[in-house]
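User: Fold this, then the next.

Assistant: Folding the first:
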Amino acid sequence: MSYVGETLSNLLHQTAFFNLTWGNYVMILVAFVFLYLAIKKGFEPLLLVPIAFGMLLVNIYPDIIASPEQTSNGVGGLLYYFYQLDEWSILPSLIFLGVGAMTDFGPLIANPISFLMGAAAQFGIFSAYFLAILFGFNDKAAAAVSIIGGADGPTSIFLAGKLGQTGLLGPIAVAAYSYMALVPIIQPPIMKALTTKKERSIKMKNLRPVSKLERILFPIVVTVVVCVLLPTTAPLVGMLMLGNLFRESGVVRQLQETASNALMYIVVILLGTSVGATTSAEAFLNWSTIKIVVLGLVAFMVGTAAGVLFGKLLCLITKGKINPLIGSAGVSAVPMAARVSQKVGAEEDPTNFLLMHAMGPNVAGVIGTAVAAGCFMAIFGI
């Protein structure tokens, strides 16, 4: 009987109930909230579902992301090996390959002024950099945190790894992906506060047709120009443009379909669950994380405001030909930010279709955030 009692006692003590802290329960609750937002509200479910589930797993069973040095048999946890692909910048680069294969750069080519709105939206990143230094972060940590303002998860992970800020990678990635998912909630109040009803109702002329030659030359020219000026952006910009060349060349349809479907979704699963698994209570519930979340939100809001304000300036210069709402899409949350521009514009006039116009600044923002990351790497000699 004593053997049976001891066995049952051992089994009971192996359950998670005897090992969970109050912090674990808090993070499990956060995971449930993320799952609710993803499944019930439809906020970027492809991102939030794996992130939330990774968060749930690590706070029930921390060893799922344990390194080989932390285990008795010298074999790391499943999500540890997924996470290594994040640190080595493999998964972020592959995400960009898939994004490029799915992205139509036609609106940007047809309206090159969109580049300026995409660039203006990066103001949030650089303003947050100086604010992060005031918050007590060192220069490299401040750069890694500020890139959240681009609402670009892969770039945030990529830069944090390159700058050696792997200790902050989890909170940075979760904050970046969270703000990507919450674009429909965060952006509209800012957009409405900075524009008038008349400005929001502006109808823009149809974009000109873009030739096949232009579409093929675009990824090649952008790669050459950007990577010559900032070679460290090659893993991101190069993969983005390679994926787009797959799409536009028309001669490698199998590669384009693989990059934009099977490969993309596999990478999202690996990246999402591993990012979620970095949010153990011990690593996540601290003042640094709170500051990162706050700074990321400030950067994202400032970036949105800068894009809209620059859109207002262009509206003034062009005598009302540009709707300022499309400037908010300059953050690189593709295509959600462009959809929000369309939604806010349609609230004023249901016949106003801004989506394709907003896609120009939106895809420009993807390039702009990668360039901003390259600038930081160049500054620090990476």
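Now the next one, as you asked:
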Amino acid sequence: MTDRTTNLAGRPRRRTGPRRTNPRSATSLRAARLRPADIVRLGGTGLRTRPLRVFLSALGIAIGVAAMIAVVGISGSGQAEVDRRLDALGTNLLRVAPGNSLNGAKAELPLETVRMIDRIPPVRQVAATGVIDAHVYRNEHIAVGRTGSLTVLAAGSDLLPAVGGRVGKGRWLDAATEKYPAVVLGSTAAHRLDVYAPGTRVWIGERWFSLLGVLDPVPLAPELDSAALIGWPAARTYLRFDGHPSTVYVRAEDSRIAAVRAVLPATAHPEKPGEVQVSRPSDALAAREATESALTGLLLGLGGVALLVGGVGVGNTMVISVLERRPEIGLRRALGATRGQIRTQFVTESLLLSAIGGLGGTVLGTLITAAYALSRDWPTVVPVWATAAGVGATLLIGMIAGLYPAVRASRLAPTEALAGT
């Protein structure tokens, strides 16, 4: 018989007893999930409790990374100095000139040669000179034929940067002066004419030209030393210059010199590439490439040894840390920490230790490189790839070195770990 009672409305109401719960529907106990911030904080706690050991371990990593970055940086700075000196010697400078035609006559380059060569992607700079059928004299009273072996060349405002020349006195041709009867003398030409002061007039092609400046000796283009250089437009206007270049100076990327040299004849004169002569680059460029490849292999070897030593130090530190912290591991396991959380804690601690050493080594290596480069008056070069590779490799090795101690710590049973207290 069912026990019923009435509610306020007089309706019967079934009496209910205590509700029974289904054991299968009960919420099972699960370990709390650690957020990334909690993981970092937990890993940092293990480092803060042993500052001296952490300092010594991080110092070992820092020395290894600093050694690698310093070697790379000093070598890169030295290589930059070598590149600067080799560029001054013109290892990336090519000359294009007309050769001889099939009938033995002197060939000539097309008017569009400079523009066509400038379209080659690896070409950095291109400039040209053109021989003018005229002579330069100090004044109109000098006997015809006493030219002093001086030549008159048409040149553009971009010639001087291409050949690495400098103005000793006065100024160089620009967009304004290259249209008017103005001239720049090479160092030898100025000496033979005994003309140095800008503004002095010289007699060229039955016309007075005003001296703009005098060049310092040009080692990469010694033919300019004994030349009188006139702006390209002015040469066509005042001296009946036909506009055909006689020498084209081409600066290209060092690594693409051979490729550029191979396509220059067909680019300079598509119709008659066989009538184009291209100079061979200096053998110093090939020697530099061989030195760079050998140096790269040496640096990789040194960097690998340094990082391996740092990884061994991290692994040793973490193994000792696990042995000393067995009670802590047992207590955390007893309170509900999973094996995965134990592994994550020690791997994070190893990564933090490696990151401290890697960043410290990067700063130390950069300072060593800068100090050495400044003492030798070299440009300071610390490749970004070296710092990134140093820190990245340190983190990778730190993770690998900390993985075994982390797995070992996670396999400790709570009773076994607490029994060692």
